[in-house]
Design a protein that fits this description.
Elements (H helix, E strand, L loop, with lengths): L16 H13 L8 E7 L7 E2 L5 E2 L1 H13 L1 E7 L2 H10 L4 E5 L3 H6 E10 L1 E6 L21 E4 L6 H7 L8 E4 L2 H9 L5 E5 H10 L6 E3 L7 E8 L5 H16 L2 H8 L4
Parallel strand pairs: 1-4, 1-5, 8-9, 8-10
Antiparallel strand pairs: 2-3, 5-12, 6-12, 7-10, 7-11
Helix pairs in contact: 1-8, 2-8
Amino acid sequence: MIGSARKPLRASRNPAQGVALAFALLLLAVLPAEAADCALRFAWWPWEPYHYLDEDGRMRGIDHALVTEAARRAGCSVTWEQVPRRRSLVLVQEGLIDAVAGLGVTAERQAMGRFSRPLRSGLNVLLVRKGEADRFPATRLADLAGQGFRLGVIAGARHSEEIDRFVGDPRVAGRIVGVPNSESALTMLARGRLDGYVDGYEVARRLMPRLGLDDAVDIHPVRLEGNTAHMLFSRASVAAELVARFDAALSAMEADGTSARLARAEGLE
């Protein structure tokens, strides 16, 4: 069973938050007339708890909620188009999709589009089979490099620089296993085809009971770098000024407690 974790989204208590809020509200107050008519196409794929369909077929998720509110404050409407995760980046680069939510920053992605300020932050965890954490002692991920550890890496995911460094370590050559998604990684781990894989804590704690594997998998005690997730806007279809307006909206949402409230409403810890 998964234990407690740090809360990734909090309302700011910094004394400077009043200044940040005032600045963001000033930016939003000068909304040009044409921006009020903007309509953006966001890509999504099933990825609970970030964007997914609930049992009634309604869009849900913390990224969905944050984007919807930020767009409202920026004077934009949003439509959501379901596409495969990796295909979404190609569509953003070509301007056929305007934006994607929930991505980590990489140099390759920066060439495709413009990143917003952080949409949210999150905790990464290393998942291993129940009772096997002691087989692979480690206080940091790099400690596993010389232990023959088979790490599953989810295609298209970018968790942190720490994990990128581990994957590129010559000592793990031939021990990195590509997997299409979290569901496949968790199933392969339970069946002994992997020794572990990295996922977001919020994803893992929902997926394990849904697949009936919450008693088959543990979180390894190694502490991993966290991450920040952003919106990536197409350079081909979205002006830099509009990205700045979303940044102002996100800053105001963090300062006034909206981001934390929406996270609680979506059940994030």
